[in-house]
Design goal:
This protein has helices at 33-44, 51-58, 117-121, 124-134, 149-158, 160-165, 171-174, 193-199, 224-230, 246-266, 284-317, 397-403, 417-423, 426-435, 445-450, 459-468; strands at residues 8-11, 14-17, 27-30, 68-75, 82-89, 94-96, 107-116, 212-221, 236-243, 278-280, 326-333, 335-344, 347-356, 358-360, 379-382, 390-395, 406-408, 439-442, 472-485. It is an alpha+beta fold. It has 2 domains: 8-96, no CATH class; 107-485, tRNA-splicing ligase RtcB (Alpha-Beta Complex), CATH 3.90.1860.10.
């Protein structure tokens, strides 16, 4: 463990810890001065979980390339910091369970409507009620896409396309989902029966915690060209869906930790922290885990596709709105590990890129982006809190060079859920949101307290740091009108 961490500023909103001890590469932190102060105070205050120390531990893993990266929304995670990025050489590197996390491919889908804010505000309560009753949410919720044991394997392989096959959405949606809504390499045999059993009735459910469904208005257009490419304009109503792979992803994480911890020991990998259980990428254990991750990612794509279909039904149920079209702008995850091509030291090479609480943020020209978006790069969908803004950003050339084409995924927590639940009352948070004109429908007041806006960093400040560092660029700001929580 590194006890003394010396941060030096190397560029606006960019800080570095040079390699010492067992570190193979430096740590690069993209953040504002306030965030840096908070991170260093956690070190001196001996905080039990420390994001900066976690980033240093990642820098000690075998085969890591260029640097252990921390983005402006950094906060402590399980072993690997949330808002962390690590890319690993395919031959010498490892795959890290903590670098993906327990909610595999948790992500955001943004739907754009063809109606304006004024048309919705008169019927906001009715629409919030329709969404609350149509989209299952909360602990133990069951989805509309009921699956037989034989069908769950199809979900794990086909992803969003299976939900479309079952009548949730259209094939046109698939062109605007990361990976086309289906990660390759998924083998259901790498997923335990227990994980599958836990998922039979959860596809099409929002879940709890920080997952949400939000009706928003485009509050400001910050890049007219990119916004036009994405089909966004000021005053337009949009819908954000934030959820992931539900119980299946969590069980994959639990199952894999045991195997990967044993693998690390058998391959002689000296772990800087036991929570960074890992295995060589090309080992049997590494390949099995990556296949299971692909299964979890496809489950998450299917989940968001199913919910998008339910959102369309809910809008149709509010007859006062008339006929409303909801188009998929983009769907992208922020807990994943993917093999990608990146230039390092002037040479293009294949790397396994872990993004934990970080989203892919490819700039212009990458073939992974939808053809329609290729001139500006694909959207980055950044969630705020129930009472603040969300953002649409895009990738940049600097972000491709300095951050492996990665971007922020949200505001980032300022305090743990346990602390937030002690400090805030759910009823009070609901009253404050409604007083500011935001409708909220929630299955649990404790969840509302845990997700109180004040429990998070200021999203505007986080976005400013991402833009100021040059790794991301702003496109549009979204204001919340109504929120559905588990």
């Amino acid at each position: 463990m590194v006890e003394h961490l010396e941060l030096e500023q190397v560029a606006p909103y960019e800080w570095r810890i040079q390699p010492t001890g067992r570190m193979h590469v430096p740590v690069t932190v993209f953040a504002d001065e306030t965030t840096i102060t908070q991170l260093t105070e956690d070190i001196t205050g001996q905080a039990e979980w420390n994001a900066l120390r976690q980033a240093v531990n990642v820098a000690c893993l075998p085969g890591i390339v260029q640097g252990s990266l921390a983005l402006p929304d950094i906060h402590p995670g399980y072993g690997f910091p949330i808002g962390g990025v690590g890319a690993f050489d395919m031959e010498q590197g490892v795959v890290v369970v903590g670098g993906v996390g327990f909610d595999i491919n948790c992500g955001v889908r943004l739907l754009a409507t063809d109606i304006e804010r004024g048309a919705v505000e008169r019927h906001l309560d009715a629409l919030a009620d329709a969404l609350f009753s149509t989209v299952p949410a909360g602990l133990g919720s069951q989805g509309s896409l009921r699956l037989k044991p034989a069908e769950i394997d199809r979900v794990l392989v086909e992803g969003a396309a299976y939900a479309v096959h079952r009548g949730f959405g259209d094939k046109e949606d698939l062109a605007f989902i990361e990976e086309g809504g289906r990660m390759s390499g998924a083998d259901p045999a790498t997923v335990s029966d227990l994980a599958k059993q836990r998922e039979y009735r959860q596809v099409g459910t929002l879940g709890s915690g920080n997952h949400y469904l939000e009706i928003q208005a485009v509050d400001a257009v910050l890049d007219g060209e990119a916004a036009a490419v994405y089909g966004l304009h000021r005053g337009q109503i949009v819908v954000s869906i934030h959820t992931g792979s539900r119980a299946l992803g969590h069980q994959i994480g639990q199952d894999s930790l045991k195997e990967m911890a044993a693998a690390a020991q058998s391959y002689g990998i000296r772990l800087p922290e036991q929570e960074l259980a890992c295995a060589p990428i090309e080992s049997p254990e590494g390949r099995r885990y990556l296949s299971a991750v692909a299964c979890g990612a496809n489950c998450a794509f299917a989940n968001r596709q199913t919910i998008a279909g339910l959102v369309r039904r809910a809008f149709a149920d509010v007859r006062e709105l008339g006929s409303v079209t909801l188009r998929t702008v983009y769907d992208i995850g922020h807990n994943n590990a993917k093999i990608e091509r990146h230039v390092v030291d002037g040479v293009e090479r294949s790397l396994l890129v872990h993004r934990k609480g970080s989203t892919r943020a490819f700039g212009p020209g990458r073939e992974e982006s939808p053809t329609k978006y290729r001139s500006v790069g694909h959207p980055i969908l950044v969630g705020g809190t129930m009472g603040t803004a969300s953002y649409v950003l895009r990738g940049t050339e600097r972000g491709m060079r300095r951050a492996f084409g990665s971007g922020i995924h949200g505001a980032g927590r300022a305090m743990s859920r346990k602390k937030a639940a002690k400090k805030y009352w759910g009823e009070t948070v609901v009253e404050q949101l409604e007083a500011s004109g935001i409708c909220i429908r929630a299955h649990s007041l404790r969840s509302v307290a845990e997700e109180a806006p004040a429990a998070y960093k200021d999203v505007d400040t986080v976005v400013k740091a991402a833009i100021g560092s040059g790794i991301n660029a702003a496109v549009a700001r979204l204001a919340p009108l109504a929120v559905v929580k588990g």
